Amino acid sequence: QHWTDEFLKWDPARFDNLTQISLPVESIWVPDILINEFVDVGKSPHVPYVYVSHHGEVQNLKPIQVMTACSLDIYNFPFDVQNCSLTFTSWLHHIRDINLSLWRQPELVKFDRSVFMNQGEWELLYILSHFQEFSVKSSDSYAEMKFYVVIRRRPLFYTVSLLLPSIFLMVMDIVGFYLPPNSGERVSFKITLLLGYSVFLIIVSDTLPATAVGTPLIGVYFVVCMALLVISLTETILIVRLVHKQDLQPHVPGWLKHLLLERATVLLCIRDRKKFSQSRTQSSDLSRQAENHDSTAKLTSYGCEDPRECGTLGGTRPALAFASRAEGSAVLQGVLRETTAIRQLLEKREEFRDVAREWLQVGYVLDILLFRAYLAAVLAYSITLGILWSVWRDV
């Protein structure tokens, strides 16, 4: 602080050419300039003297360390830029008594970083100064000098400790889609990732700034990532349930088969989509083979292929042929019943396998479709956040 006190002037010629003296602060008048944003007593070193020149100019060079209140906008955390104000004014004297002005030019004050400790969390960008007059209840005006201290947070620490672990977990969630859809390991893998992300959020909750005014974007980012992990786990459970082999599983509906195994394979550019059409013809081939076996069994049930041969044999020895034929027919019918039961069992088992194979193909195509939709959503979300944070960082 520099001010002129007309009662402290003297002629140096009358006092052995003495042009400057030091006086105790308690012995002279000192202006009551305070900072409006004070929230605590200033922790400043005690400097008991001021310099007084023969022109009446008083220099109070006491350094001041204060704790002030600042309205923070943490929406862009950790790429936020804060604008904190320091308002210097007098509480007792009007502008007619005390007027305020800058000792240096505003351009020199704006980019002066000589006394700023630049190794901490914040980086000083510039300091703006503004002078204005204000009045209280239509009384005399007061002088006010306001400084706007614009600082920017260094985001490297928060990027390493907050963003990168979250990004790594999301990448592992995407990689987990390459596990086979009919494998139960994918469900346990997704649950492990979700549990790990929950523990990660508990650890970093103390690092995020807590305020009731608004939520930082990084908090929204963590919540959305958690929601994406839950959606991924839900999709995995749906696919595993769809392709799970069950004896009572119905056939795939025709509209679903046409929509996924024909239209979706072309849309998704699946290279091995020919296997789907080939597998759908296997059941018809099996049914044809079953009919052929059935006709062959009917022919062999009579013991000969040509009825005339049977008639000739019957004509020569009717009684013996009839007895042997009756006995052979009973044995043959028993063998045929057993063979038919085995054939039906194998056909039913093959039918179950065809149904399971069809649902597996549907689950495979649906898994690819949902995975690409999930991947597109994650990429769009990541690109949007990256653009926003890069813009805020360069501001």
Attribute tags:
single chain, 395 residues, Acetylcholine Binding Protein, Chain: A, 4-stranded antiparallel beta sheet, 50% helix
| Helical segment count | 9
Task: Please trace the helix and strand order, writing H or E for each element.
Answer: EEEEEEHEEHHHHHHHH
Radius of gyration over alpha carbons?
45 Å
Query: Unreliable runs, pLDDT <50, ≥5 residues?
Result: 276-291, 293-317
Look at the helices and sheets and give the structural class: alpha+beta
Oligomeric state of the chains in view: single chain
The proportion of residues forming helix, as a percent range, comes to: 40-55%
- Would you report the number of β strands? 8
Q: Trace the largest sheet across and list its strands.
A: 1-5-4-2
Globular, elongated, flat, extended or rod-shaped: what is the shape?
rod-shaped
Number of domains: 3
- Please give the alpha-carbon distance between the first and last residues: 34 Å
Let me know the largest β-sheet. Answer: 4 strands, antiparallel
